[in-house]
Specification:
The chain is of the alpha+beta class and 101 residues long. The protein is built from four helices and four strands; from the N terminus they run H-H-E-E-H-H-E-E. A four-stranded antiparallel sheet has the order 1-2-4-3. The protein is elongated, with a radius of gyration of 14 Å.
Length: 101
């Protein structure tokens, strides 16, 4: 309970997505960090089949915000980009987590 950003970083690594996708954490400050899904199995498979990205932003907004709040109610979640948003080649979605004191 109330394990802050360090607890959230650790918990993100325990999710199934952490085992099947490539993730990274960057832009860390004492009160925030950016979590990126660098390689997503679903999106990579769609790309390989010539399909557009699956539009998962609405699901991600619910999933990541509830997950972060379960770790610590003070954590706010902001979507930096997630399909159907355009994104660079280096990642598929990115989320900023901020600890509100």
């Amino acid at each position: 309970e109330n394990s802050g950003l360090e607890g959230l970083k650790r918990a993100l690594g325990f999710r199934v997505y952490g085992c099947i996708n490539k993730q990274s954490i960057s832009e860390e400050t004492p009160t925030s960090f950016v979590f990126r899904m660098d390689e997503c199995r679903v999106q990579v498979a769609r790309k390989r089949k010539g399909l557009a990205d699956y539009p998962c932003k609405s699901a991600g907004q619910v999933e990541y915000s509830y997950f972060a709040r379960a770790i610590d109610k003070r954590i706010q979640t902001e979507c930096i980009g997630c399909p159907p948003d355009a994104h660079p080649e280096g990642w598929f979605c990115a989320w900023k987590f901020t600890l509100q004191e």
